[in-house]
Amino acid sequence: MTISPSNDPLSAEAVFDTVGPAYETAFADLGAQSASLEWLLSQISLFSSSDSEGTGKKKIKIVDLGCGTGRPVISTLASSTKNSDFEILGIDISSAMISAAKERVSFPNVRFEKRDISEFLASTENGEYTAVTVYFSLIAGMTQSGIKHVLGEIARVLQPGGLFVFATVPLDAENEEIMWMGNKVRVSSLSTEDVLTTLKEVGLEVVFQELSAFTPKAEEAGICKAEDAWEEPHLFVYAKKPAV
Question: How many domains does one find in the chain?
């Protein structure tokens, strides 16, 4: 990563407001993400339990934390689950991203909210969600302890047997100032080993992990010059909360 100049780093909200919907173009054709959605949909199809009142199938609730423009994650999930038994929520700290998501992804079982991830999780009940997805949204403006706390909260809000897909840049970084997409931002991240250890500590079972590399198409998206984008290491992890 390129060390940034002396100007103050942008907040996570500001940097994604700046990058905006062009992020979708820069990260298009991310094969590991498509594969993770295929896995998630295959597992969600197995949920068919009855609600507590015995009136039929209970809602399958999915939340994408840091949803961006809603594509491809929520659009893929929603187009594959077009029925009243599914509720899909996307949250993001960026107003620009939420505005784009509301314009680009329109399904009756989908809604979007501008929310901070930590605040959202703190207000969410135990076991409320069938599945949670996080794609690269626990990096900017985070600390390592904050990331670990959020992973614990995700485990808490998942129902027994619930599903978690997590993608991150697996580096041992704490409050480092970097240049990303032409913007100075402060970031933290966990190494692959720390991610796997933390997920085990919070009670999630890792069923798949994969390391890959991807170079965002930032110049094509009009975000920054080609030299301001670099090949990123990516870690994709699929996990489950043990059934009671």
Answer: 1
pLDDT digits (tens, 9 = 90+) for 79-130: 987 666 889 999 999 999 999 999 999 999 999 999 999 999 999 999 999 9
Q: Is residue 161 part of a domain?
A: yes
Q: 225 near 219, Cβ under 8 Å?
A: yes
Q: Give the pLDDT confidence score for residue 50 in this predicted structure.
A: 41
Beta bridge partners of 179: 2, 184
Rg (CA), the chain: 17
Query: What is residue 194's predicted lDDT score, i.e. its pLDDT?
Result: 98
Q: Is residue 69 part of a domain?
A: yes
pLDDT at position 83 is 63
Q: Coil, strand, or helix at residue 37?
A: helix
The number of helices, as runs of H, and strands, as runs of E, in the chain is 8, 10
Q: Do the Cβ atoms of 30 and 165 come closer than 8 Å?
A: no
Q: Looking up tokens 């993770």, which residue turns up?
A: 36
CATH code for position 174: 3.40.50.150
* Cα dihedral 226, 228, 231, 236 sign: negative
What are the Cα distances from residue 130, in Å, to 121, 163, 215?
14, 6, 32
Structural domain boundaries, residue 213: 2-40+59-240
Res 45: pLDDT: 82
Residue at 223 is within a domain: yes
The pTM for the full model equals 0.92
Which residues does the chain have with pLDDT short of 70? 1-6, 48-57, 82-84
**Residue of 71, 101, 108, 73 lying closest to 87 (CA atoms):** 108
Domain membership of residue 48 (yes or no) is: no
